[in-house]
Every structure is written in structure tokens, then in C-alpha cells.
Predict the structure of GTP-binding protein 8.
Amino acid sequence: MLPVRQLLRLRPGVAVSCATGQRIHKLASVQKVTSLPPKKLRSLLYPFSELEAYLDRSMDRTQFQLFDPSLEDMIEAEKLFHSSPSHKIDYYISAERMEHAPDLKQPEVCFIGRSNVGKSSLIKALFSLTPEVEVRVSKTPGHTKKMNFFRVGKAFTIVDMPGYGHKAPRDFVDMVEPYLYTRKNLVRTFLLVDGSVGLQKADLIALEMCEETGCPYVMVVTKIDKCGSGTLLTNLLNLQDVVKTETTSCFPQPFLISSLQFGGIYLLRCFIAHVTGSIRLKETSQS
Ligand SMILES: Nc1nc2c(ncn2[C@@H]2O[C@H](COP(=O)(O)OP(=O)(O)OP(=O)(O)O)[C@@H](O)[C@H]2O)c(=O)[nH]1
Ligand SMILES: [Mg+2]
């Protein structure tokens, strides 16, 4: 791997504007954060590193670092999240039922989880380099009412789902469930859990369903900025225990995310690029 400084030509700095004049957050691009102090940079790129110090020395950390791409890989993956005339990123369509879901051939990934867990915010952060792509978020649970399809050129599609739990039990049964069982081009499901509250009963039901579908899925721990390290670590270890003892199709490594502060966003972009076959990692890692 090349030293960080050599890899980068861009200077870090303040927010910049995209083609439509909308402001791009200064932390949106991995290329722009590399001048941060090393510890801060590491915690943004690999949020698990923040928690490592609190773990018992004897504890095996491998499961938390299975997918461990280099900065170079993350920079390569990030290119896919820039829109251009030959690689258009856009909101494509919304569907209320599977019959209305678009017939797309490219690999697809979807984000599911309880209402308010941060699905739309996460997708918004992934697309923060193209702020013209509108992803609606809200403080009010049950905000996303349909399956929203976003195309990332011809590389892959990202689907934002309505949440389950509070106020929206029907959506899960009517939309998410049939989608998970029948979507042929679905390559990964990301199941989001709120890091500040940990696994809830409804999450366990969703996890069970993911197991039943047999499609590979990945746990994402959201809102890691919202609680202290102790609470986060307790919730993470509990989740890890469930993944280890009760799942077979779940990727053993949970991804830690703060959509508001961009922690883990670059790593997740790289993972999505990798599992959709859109990039070839320079250094080996698993998925
Ligand atoms: N502190 C913090 N708040 C977050 C984060 N991600 C999302 N939120 C907040 O959580 C609330 C819900 O976010 P959404 O992204 O709309 O949640 P959702 O899962 O799409 O919700 P539904 O569409 O209702 O299912 C909003 O007030 C967000 O600002 C995060 O990383 N950190
Ligand atoms: Mg939403």
C-alpha cells in the first residue's frame, strides 16, 4: 500500500459544490479526510478501531476486521459514487408492491431495519458526493413508505426500504418480505440495528427472516455517535454473539456507521463496490 500522502493529490478542506451547485459535506470524500490527525482518520475509516482499546486483550478481534481494505481500495470504490454523464447516479423509481418493482439486471443491495434506525440517512451519506440525488430522511418513524430504487450507473442498485416495527408492521409483510424472498438480482441485504439501543425483538424477527431467505446479509450498527463507547461495545458484543450462535448466512463482521459524522461510510462504500463485483480489491479480504 502506498503512503497516504503519496496517494492523494487533493487538499483537504471546506465543503465544495457539485455540478448543480449543492454543497458537498467536507467529510463526504475519503480523499478529503486524509489530512485529519491519524487517530481521527482511523476512527472515521475503521470505526471499530475506536472500541478496540476497551476490549479484553485475550479477545479475538479477527471477526471485526475480516473486511479490511486499504485506503487505495476505498479511493477506488469511491469513484463509483461520483455521478458523471457516463455513470449516472439517480433515484429511479418507487414501488409499493413487488409487482411494481423495476426489472433491473444489475446487482442490487437493500437496506432494511426498524423504523427510524437510519436506513435513509445511511443511503444519503453513501450518496453524499452526489447531493442532487434526493434521499428523504425524517425524525418521524415510518417516513419511508415505499421501496425506493436508486441506480448507480450500470454498476448496481441500492434499495431503501420502509422500516418495520413502530407504526409500520404491514409494510414489512407486504413489501420487504416478498422482496427478500423473490428478488433475483439481490446480492446483499444490510440489516440495520441502532447501536445506541442494541438488538430489539423486531430485529430478531428480521434476522430470522434473512436466515430463511438464504440470501447473504450483513449487520450494520447505526448511530454510533449517539452513545458512549461502553454502551456501544455492550450492544455490539451482544449482537456479535447472536450472529455467531444463531446465523449461517450473516457476514460475521458488523459494520459500524455514523451517517451524520461519516464514520464507516467509506468502508461500507468499498464493501458494496466489492460485493456487487464493481471493483477488484488490491489486497485480499473476505466477504
Ligand atoms: N445521531 C445520529 N442520528 C442519526 C443517524 N442516522 C440517522 N439518524 C437520525 O435518525 C432519524 C431517522 O433517520 P432515517 O434515516 O429517516 O431513518 P429510517 O430508518 O429511514 O426511518 P423510516 O424511513 O421511518 O423507516 C433522523 O432524525 C436522523 O437524523 C446517525 O448516524 N447518528
Ligand atoms: Mg427511511
